[in-house]
Write a structure and sequence with these properties.
With 126 residues, the chain is α+β, with helices and mostly antiparallel strands. It has four helices and two strands, in the order βααβαα. A two-stranded antiparallel ribbon has the order 1-2. About 10% of the residues have low confidence.
Length: 126
Amino acid sequence: MANKTKPITFSIDSETIEAIEAFKGRTNSESTSAIIRAAIERYDFEEMDTSTAEAKQVSLRVDSIVRDKLKSVAKSQGVSIGFLLRECIMSFIAEDQSDPQPRVGKSPILTMEVSDSKKHSHPWQI
């Protein structure tokens, strides 16, 4: 049984919004939310810069396991969940420049798996 999704509201600066829209057009992705969820799954939270910029509010529903993990990482790193999400998004979109991403949103919903240390070396990688 899939976990219930829970909303996360966070701010996105105009540069990130423009990058998401360009990515969406380039990849013909279904939605901004699908792009952000895919970005969360692929991001390495151990490598991040903590600077900030002007922002816009966005709301996104995520699996409760993903939300709990984001809260845990944010607390341990001393940053906001929004900061983590912005990092995920920009990293995901930047990857598209060298390794084009498939359309996001039409495939089954991506979910964060609870990994055991034997399977994965990084807790966010699935």
